[in-house]
Amino acid sequence: MGAGPGDPNLITVKGRNLIEQADAILFAGSLVSETAMRWAKPDCDIQDSKGMDLEEIVAWLIAKAQKKQVVIRLQTGDPSLYGALIEMVQPLDEQGIEVGVIPGVSSAMASAAAGVESLTLPEVTQTVILTRVEGRTPMPEGESLVELAQHHCTLCLFLSITLLKKVQTDLRAAGWSDDAPVLVIHKASWPDEEQIVRGTLADIREKCRAEKINSQAMIIVSPTLGARHWSELKKSKLYDKSFTHRFRKAVS
Ligand code: SAH
Questions:
Q1: Which of 79, 83, 213, 222 maximizes the CB count within 10 A of its CB?
Q2: Contact 165, 202 (CB under 8 A)
Q3: Residue among 10, 11, 12, 31 to mutate when testing ligand 1 (max atoms within 8 A of CB)
Q4: Same domain, yes or no, for 77 and 146?
């Protein structure tokens, strides 16, 4: 299940209820706050998966599930994003173990919230791309950052904070200007640990280096950034007086 971005209060109510019932929890130590475990039963078997490889994780989950009722794999953010979900589910399916997924608040959403940013704005961009820069994991054809960035929509870049130089090169190649705003959030939502760095395509790398941010960070590049301070804003049609929708008649 998804533990959310870090703040234990951002675990869903459903997730918290399941933690209370769990007989065993395997949590992704480096990214999931241990305070989330405070809701677990005193006799719950709790283990940090830091240092375990995928095979060991799967073996642990299977061994516990064969003995216990409720076994949780607690992952950061939402399990459907960069979470090796399918690699874990397939062996459990093979063993006939019942599997369910509880979603979580992704760090992309927590980062937007930390910066009081809207990832979509009317007539600016209506699209968000959740992606990463090519590192050790190769990008499928057509998904290089240069190609995706050509849409000039909002980009949320996971797993890419050590690759800011490539982000700069690729965005420039895709036509973004040096003064395009960039937002980096380190440990979004973590109580007392969250850091927010605002910069431009030209200086964001220097700024992150100065703040020593080199892990657990979300990079958001978007033409919507900073809209809170814009004097002219196209308002969302949803709240426009002249716009009729299912729940409200337009006034003319
Ligand atoms: N499933 C997770 C993503 C896991 S990949 C989710 O939905 O958020 C790990 C990457 O997520 C990190 O490299 C970083 O880019 C991002 N990340 C995870 N937690 C974060 C947080 N609290 N603040 C900023 N970025 C975070």
A1: 222
A2: no
A3: 31
A4: no
Ligand 1 pocket by Cβ (under 6 Å): 5-6, 31, 76-78, 81-83, 106-107, 110-111, 158-159, 185, 187-190, 216-218
- The model scores a pTM over 0.70: yes
Condensed to tens digits (0 to 9), the pLDDT of residues 126-148 reads 999 999 999 888 999 999 999 99
Residues recorded for the chain: 252
Residue 205 backbone dihedrals phi, psi, to 5 degrees: -65, -45
- Contacts (Cβ under 8 Å, ≥6 apart) of 242: 250, 251, 252
Nearest to 115 by CA among 178, 182, 163, 58: 182
Does pLDDT of 25 surpass 80? yes
82 and 165 belong to one structural domain? no
Q: What is the CATH number of the domain that holds 214?
A: 3.30.950.10
* pLDDT tens by residue, 174-229: 999 999 999 999 999 999 999 999 999 999 999 999 999 999 999 999 999 999 99
